[in-house]
Design goal:
This protein has about 210 residues and is mainly beta. The protein has 2 helices and 11 strands; from the N terminus they run αβββαββββββββ.
Length: about 210
């Protein structure tokens, strides 16, 4: 093999590694799953944290999906402000540099949709393209013994993002809706996180 061919092969390999490395580092978050902290006014006067949970970024416009009870915990009522925290490195405490606004909610389905605000808490414009997101698999049909990954910020260890394997242990119908039973404990504050299979969002822990 002559020197020119060696040089070309080296350059192609190096370029691919460089492009992949640059693409991987382009995201500011290691996971599309974020932590969400909800706030409201106690008796209409005192700002108070009302609930804490997880959410998932589902598109490149900063839209996130969570549970309705994460934004309305039924005791304090509907929250009026939301802090969004992202994890930048494995084992690192999430940074709460963003806020979000509520777009829609359904207490029957226990679903809420929010959008990360255009400016962070420092007044800097948010570049949504730098936030890792995940597509929803609307065609997924749960089957017993299906294996997938659960990601969220559970009550125990909520200072870091957690990931664990879970298995579908059963499927049940209730009030016209399908619910998946799993062999994994869904701890408080994991609500609104993600069940992921084949790199797509298939379900939300409740």
């Amino acid at each position: 093999m002559n020197q020119l061919k060696k040089y070309m092969i080296f350059w192609i390999l190096f370029s691919n590694i460089f492009i992949f490395h640059t693409f991987a580092e382009n995201f500011i978050n290691i996971s599309p799953v974020v932590q969400i902290v909800s706030y409201g006014d106690l008796y209409g006067k005192i700002p108070q944290m009302t609930s804490w949970g997880s959410a998932t970024i589902i598109n490149k416009n900063g839209v996130i999906i969570s549970n309705d009870h994460v934004v309305d915990n039924w005791y304090w009522g509907l929250s009026s402000a939301f802090s969004i925290c992202i994890t930048k490195e494995i084992g690192q405490t999430p940074e709460c540099n963003y806020t979000a606004s509520l777009i829609a909610r359904d207490d029957d389905l226990d679903i809420s949709i929010l959008k990360i605000d255009e400016f962070d808490i420092y007044g800097k414009a948010v570049d949504y393209s730098k936030m890792k997101s995940i597509d929803i698999d609307f065609d997924y049909i749960p089957k017993n013994q299906d294996e997938t990954i659960a990601i969220g910020y559970p009550w125990i260890g909520s200072d870091t993002i957690s990931e664990t394997k879970w298995i579908v242990a059963g499927i049940t119908q209730y009030n016209g809706h399908t619910f998946i039973k799993t062999d994994t404990l869904i701890a408080s504050w994991n609500s609104g996180g993600a069940f992921i299979k084949n790199e797509k969002l298939i379900w939300i822990p409740t």
